[in-house]
Amino acid sequence: MSLSPPTFQTQLTLSRPYLTRRQISKLQCKTITDRRSYNQKKIVVIRYLSELCTRLNFPRKTLETALYYYQRYHLFNSFETELCYTLATSCLVLSCKQVETMKKINEICNLSFVLRNIKMNPMKNAEILNNFKKQLFHLELKILEACSFDYRINNYVHADEFIVKFGKKLGFSYQVCHLAWLIGYDVLKLEIMLIVPQHCISLAVLKIATELIGQDLEIWKKRETFIKLDVQQLQFQEAYFDILNFFINAFELCDLKDNLPVGVPMISIDTFIQLKKRAGPEVGIREMNESSLKADEYFAVQREYTVRERRYTLIQSLVKDESNSLEKMH
Amino acid sequence: MSTEITTPITQTEYTKEKKVGEGTYAVVYLGTKQSTGRQIAVKEIKTSEFKDGLDMSAIREVKYLQEIQHDNVIELVDIFMAYDNLNLVLEFLPSDLEVIIKDRSILFTPADIKSWMLMTLRGVHHCHRNFILHRDLKPNNLLLSPDGVIKVADFGLARAVPSPHEMLTSNVVTRWYRAPELLFGAKHYTSAIDIWSVGVIFAELMLRIPYLPGQNDIDQMEVTFRALGTPTDKEWPEVSSFGSYNKLQIYPPPSIDELRKRFIAASENALNFMCGMLTMNPKKRWNAIECLESEYFKEMPPPSDPSEIKIK
């Protein structure tokens, strides 16, 4: 099959809102050349966006959605250090629209300048602001393309809201839910949001919270718990182990250690190592094998933005039907 | 299985053949889906001209139409990017109820109205059961397919059903179709606002003129309450606590005889159906299921077959 870009007039892409770890690595290989720099910048961006959200009184879901967009963008677009703040701000602007926490764009932009110590020149204020806004709006569409315009994600399900909903449903105390909510903030630093749906993350976070408080509950061993909450067990385990691994491997980056609520036992790396030991062998979602990954154009071919008509769909059968009819034509 | 088609194709899948409209945030073209020959409408979103970037109406339109597929809701066929512009491909719907109401050369029967109401309510019910509020129902947004099927369209103001404590803007719904709780400036409301709009549309279909045509927001309250009575705390507890309530003239609700005189051709069940939708208290107002199960749809005449309604 010839893949020379100039011949393409149309391209149809099926949305894949969640990917496996190996799939993510495969995509990032093409977009992130300096992994260390990317990780460092991501932590800075999280702090920056958190500060913006706090000052603008946005709920956690606005921050969560912005960070999903930020990470998703870098699966299909090159990581550029100097673009980070602009991209992060654009992700926040789009997130506000997605979760309907509206704010004036100028307010967000001006606060962004303040947080980044950008000294405004009174003569050129309007010009600087307008240029910044232009950059934000240009990126908006690129972010949405990276998400295949799939608005199902970050629409009704947000991790923090499901911590409360599941917590209530399972009869957990305020203390457990509060602790889970705090752990949930650290989870925003992980790529797990790109891998499993948020409600699976919420349940994994609740499990860790109960364990940190010292509760050894039978419900985590029962299949009905997962069936009742419509959580796939493998996705739950993927999230559970990913979060434990974060606390074990990057404990110094966690905010939880400095924000433990009263009455919760102190935590250390060892606390999480013990939890992991008790949890048994690490399991998670099934990975695609290397040969399938190589054969899959979604991962093998660099996203081509010069194609004249770039179509995005959520319906798998549509891709199948059009693919079949094309094969017949050729 | 590969989920991407990258086979070289010499032409684009969608053509834009004729510009048929231009709104604040989009230009609409008639076109064709090349692989099937299906006629479609392409809404090209004007991204660059907006001071706030991608317009909220476009986001809402995609967000909610992606979620719902129903015979009585417009179909979002495709989404594509071309020359840095976002394009929404929608099914081609050549007419709407506003055009039909206004066109005096078109005669329609009570059975036709019943058919349109049934289709509208099915579409609205589908939105509500998917936790979506439309927030802009009016004849102009009830489009008609070539075979006469009503499709609820324009989801530019839609939103998800809010959480119990979420604050919303009351500046939604085109004025004449705005429910009383919105006129009072309520910060929280439910799917009942859409049912009110459907009630006003039903009245308009029977009268063939707008039923509650307020000149401005204050006049809208006056017109609404003059026609249907000013709500009191008795039927709508605490309605008097809305800030604007004290300035209102108190009108009595219309008697059944007055309604009969105004809606001459309406049966008792039709009037009851309309009053259910135009109940002042949103908690007592009929929901979409109650409307669909109403006696009005069970009595004679049966709803017309949509394809047999002669609209031209």
Quick tags:
heterodimer; A: 330 residues; mainly alpha; Cyclin A, domain 1; 2 domains; two-stranded parallel ribbon; 2 strands; globular; B: 312 residues; alpha+beta; Phosphorylase Kinase, domain 1; Transferase(Phosphotransferase), domain 1; five-stranded antiparallel β-sheet; three-stranded antiparallel β-sheet; 9 helices; 11 strands
Quick overview of this protein structure:
With 330 residues, chain A is mainly alpha-helical.
Provide an overview of this structure.
The complex is a heterodimer of chains A (330) and B (312). Chain A has 330 residues and is mainly α. Chain A folds into two domains: 14-146, Cyclin A, domain 1 (Orthogonal Bundle); 159-279, Cyclin-like (Cyclin A, domain 1). Chain A is 60% helix and 3% strand. Chain A has 15 helices and two strands. Chain A has helices at 21-31, 35-55, 60-76, 84-99, 105-115, 125-146, 159-169, 174-187, 198-213, 223-228, 233-249, 269-279, 290-295, 297-300, 316-329; strands at 10-14, 309-313. In chain A, strands 1-2 form a two-stranded parallel sheet. In chain A, helix 3 crosses helix 4 and helix 4 (84-99) packs across helix 6. The longest helix of chain A has 22 residues, at 125-146. Chain A is globular, with a radius of gyration of 21 Å. With 312 residues, chain B is of the alpha+beta class. Chain B has two domains: 14-91, Phosphorylase Kinase, domain 1, CATH 3.30.200; 95-308, Transferase(Phosphotransferase) domain 1 (Transferase(Phosphotransferase), domain 1), CATH 1.10.510.10. Chain B has nine helices and eleven strands. A five-stranded antiparallel β-sheet of chain B has the order 2-3-4-6-5, covered by helices on one side. In chain B, strands 7-9-10 form a three-stranded antiparallel β-sheet. In chain B, strand 5 (76-82) and strand 6 (85-91) form a beta hairpin. In chain B, helix 3 (110-129) packs antiparallel against helix 5 and helix 5 (192-207) runs antiparallel to helix 8. The radius of gyration of chain B is 21 Å and the shape is globular. At the A-B interface, strand 1, helix 4, helix 6, strand 2 and helix 15 of A face strand 1, helix 1, strand 5 and strand 11 of B.
